[in-house]
Design brief:
With 491 residues, the protein is an alpha+beta fold. The protein has 14 helices and 18 strands. It has three domains: 126 residues, PAS domain (Beta-Lactamase), CATH 3.30.450; 168 residues, GAF domain (Beta-Lactamase), CATH 3.30.450; 150 residues, 2-Layer Sandwich (Alpha-Beta Plaits), CATH 3.30.70. The strands form four sheets. It has a six-stranded antiparallel beta sheet with strand order 8-7-6-11-10-9. Strands 2-1-5-4-3 form a five-stranded antiparallel beta sheet, with helices on both faces. It catalyses: 2 GTP = 3',3'-c-di-GMP + 2 diphosphate. It holds the Pfam family PAS_9.
Amino acid sequence: MPADDVGADTASDTQRFYADLVMHHSSDAVIISDPQRKALWVNPAFTSQTGYAIDDITGRDPGTVLQGRDTDAETGAQIDVACRQRHEIRVDILNYTKSGAAFWVDLKVTPVYDATGRHTHFISTMRDITERKMLEDQNEEMRHAEALRQSERQLLALTSEWLYSSKSFDELLMVIKRAMHTLIPEADGALYIYDAPRTVLELAISWGTLPAFATHILPDDCWALRRGRAYAYGLKPIEFVCDHVDKPGMPYFCLPVVAHGETIGLMHIVFDGFEEGGLMRHMRNEVLRNRWDISLICAEQISLAVANVRLRQELHDKSVRDPLTGLWNRRWFMEHALRELTMAQRDARDLALISVDVDHFKQFNDRFGHETGDMVLKEVGHVLTRDAGDNVAPCRLGGEEFILLCVDHDEGAAYEQAERVRVAISKIALTVSGQPLPAITVSAGLGVLGRDGTALEDIMKAADLALYRAKAEGRNRVIERLSPEVTIGAS
């Protein structure tokens, strides 16, 4: 054999030796297939990676052996298309071992051609990337969880803004209902508020799809109220159902609502469909723990908002309520009378004013003292409030002067209202130190929109002039309209 041929054979043998070393000792799985993608040979790494020996896969399409139920069908289709077109392709794909365990690989399929350009083989290399995929999934879960937390923080901040912007308790309840349904959409809920004697909690609002919540619950029926802190049922190994819960086994939260250090109510959140037979336990507990954290924040925000509304209401009441009688004061009357007058003129509705003055009030102060005078005024205010009909707002303008703002009252209805309170006040019986006070009576006069003018000042003046006439004609009477002879008498 010529020396050159001997050298060429030696070099070829060396290359085959090195290739054999790589193929047998590479950590990447290698499959050699024919042009029809039927497996011809696999390296030891393939068997180690998949559990399939060469006899298990020879003559079979590797994809049909390795791909399984959760393998992405679109990725498999991309491989099929590339192989038919004899193009190299590289993809990440989910495979399954012989024992059924799923694992991810970085798969590269390369067509091989001979010296003449004829397609002779496919070489497929697979690198296990399961750990990398797990890290990617974990990172994606973390990103998703962070995005969810960010969304929750934004919703909580928006909810807090709306809660603190509420001007009244009714408006606050509306915000709570909308906010809780948005923040915890998979739960139903209700808000209970203590009644005045603090004996029961009454249903204020509810939200969600449950048909109905109890209209009231007793404080001792709830573990949260009895223990003085929020209570979650469905997350602990030892727990007991509250007596106010009708459907045992369903997870729920009970969260006290506290204002100015005093428990004023209870927020009850129910997870219908989250029973033991529903969601898988780990999913169920994960959702409940997340919602528990949100619920605690919401309960705190609602408590602060309730305290804020109460303080605002107290300050507002002080500015528009007469401190002695509890009636609306002059400021409130002037603001609301102007507004009601404008709406009455716009909508062609009736409106009347009734001026009321306590007869001989000075004698109560002079003979019995100012404390007795205050007692008389408070009792008159009580009767005006008690006997005020629909759309009637009793106000104290000052001293012994009162006025009733009567919306949707014509002359006849206003006269009946005035007579009703006049008679009721004449029946008041008060005693001081065991001695009966003289009879308490009032005089009243009417001012009517349209009949007496369209400006508030004109209607008030007409009511006052009618009142003065009632005084001049003997007191303890109602004058419904003016006459040419008007005498302004003393009180």
